[in-house]
Amino acid sequence: SSGQELCYLCHQRQRKNIPISFTEEEEKSSGINAEYGHRVFTAQIQALYGVVQAGSHDHVKVFGDNAQRNLRMEGKVEDLKEVLTKVTYFPLPGYEGPELLTVALGDDRHSMTVQLLLYVTDTCH
Questions:
Q1: How far apart are CA 16 and CA 68, in angstroms?
Q2: How far apart are CA 89 and CA 86, in angstroms?
Q3: Upper half-sphere CA count for residue 68 (Cβ side, 13 Å)
């Protein structure tokens, strides 16, 4: 055993649902809105001390595994925004402390980035 494995109960206790959304003001200032519904955008979520998992959606492509530190997806704006409201965060085993999630959404013309500061507690030791 590597010591990095989680029992089922620890895994469930560590799981944190982190709904991510953008304010109307952030959307206006970035130029990203529903009028770009036909264009493909990229969303990227980065975690420092854990992994993120996206919610499922038929029209969003997730690159690589759907549980990683740097999660990248492609899809239409409204579909990506829906997936971002269903993000789940899993801290590294035994980690307690601050976590900064960085979320970027954009294409070749428009982009916006938000950062979420979390504090991780009650992980398995």
A1: 14
A2: 10
A3: 10
